[in-house]
Every structure is written in C-alpha cells, then in structure tokens.
Amino acid sequence: MLPRAILQVPTPSEVDARRNLIARSARALGVATAHDLRDYSRIGPTDARLPIDQLVEEGTLVPVRVRGWLHQAYLHKDARLGRTRAGAALVSPFDPLVWHRPRTERLFGFRYRLEIYTPAHKREHGYDVLPLLLDGALVARVDLKADRKAGALIVQRAHVERQAPSCTVERLADALGSLAAWLGLSRLAVTPAAALAGLSPSAAIPAGPPTIGPPPPKVADRSW
C-alpha cells in the first residue's frame, strides 16, 4: 500500500514525469551521456530529448565533454567527486555497475556481454560470468556454477584483464571463497579451463571456510 501522502500528490504530466526521472538518473550517475540517462529509467530517445533540454535550460544538467567519450555528456549540478573505495567483490550481471554495457566499457575499459543466450561454442567467457571489482576497477571475470548436491561452487572459466594488478588472482580467490560460504557451499571446485596461477584444483583458499579441489564428476543443477 502507498502512503496517503504519496496518493495525495498530483499526478505529473508525462513530460514532467520523464524530466524528474532523468534528473534522478543524472544525480545517481554524476556524469552521463543522453543514452546513459535514458537507459537508467528505460526512456526512449524521442521521449527523452525534451526533458534533457529542459534540465539543461534550468541548470540542473551542465553539458560537458569527457576525454575519450564520443558523445555529448551531461554533469549534474550537484555532482561531487566520488570517494575511493578499496575492496574486492564479484558483481552480478544485473548490477547497475555493469547493466548498461556501453557505459561500463567507457568508464572501465571493460567489454562485458551476457552470453547466456549465446551458443556454447561461441561464448567468449562463459555462461554465468561475474566480473571482479577490485579497488574501483574491473579486473577479472569468472564463469560460475553452483552444484548444491556436491556442495561446491564450480569455477568453470576464469579470465584476468591485461592491466590487472599482480594481486588479482589472490583477491579473486578470497572473493570466491566468500561467495561459496555465503551460498552455503563447503568447497570451491576449479576446472582445468579455469586454472590460473594461484587458482588451481590443488590451491588453497587463504580466507573463508570453503576448501578447494577438482570439480565433481557430475553437475546436477545451476541454481544459486
């Protein structure tokens, strides 16, 4: 149920509603292209043109140029430089950080595609691929599968980006161990195709309770 205060607010016109949505998109994104702003709220290009122009005219959006970007960008008037965040985390394919693939590639130099519907022999990185966010950069990706009958989180494929720091595999192993524990799985299983220096069927996970070993002979399901 919606609060009475919300129900009593007058219904905005379509243009006003879109302008409010795009303003919220800009506030969340900081700096963005028109495509970024539209995609955040799933607004079509024709419907977004007038609201963006209005937000520029009123000063909410400031047109800017970003080095390396081919298209016009807009800076929200209240945008502030973001804080540096240290840490490692595996990112869901549906996380806002990677949802809009063109923006992800512009910001991080990280080309990411959802290959669930791609035939297996044409996949570049795998089926359920999760990027690794490390200290503010996307530096690796892993194709994962949860085998709950075997109690194992299976690393089917792993890839480290060219510019990744030397500690990437170690931090990836930590993140995988944490994910396995969060899923209630007792061990990690690394296939030969996913073996990296520091992440192999015989390696040990330095943090977290799961143990690591070869994959089980049969995998029953893909559920998380």
UniProtKB/TrEMBL annotation:
It comes from the Bacteria. Pfam families: AlkZ-like. Residues 207-218 have a biased composition (Pro residues). Residues 205-224 are annotated as: Disordered. This is Winged helix-turn-helix domain-containing protein. It comes from Methylobacterium isbiliense.
